Amino acid sequence: MRLLLIVALVLSSLMIPASSWSSDDVEFSALIIEKDNGEEQRGKIFIAKNMSRYELEGSGEIIVTRHDKKVIWLIFPKLRKYVEQPYLGEPKQNYAGANEINTGDLSKKFIEHERVDSYRLKKFLVTVKYNNGESKDQYYEWYRDNFPVPVKTESMDGRTSYEYLNIKLGRPPAELFSKPKGYKKITADELAETEKSPNQQQ
Question: pTM of the predicted model, to two decimals?
Answer without folding.
Answer: 0.74
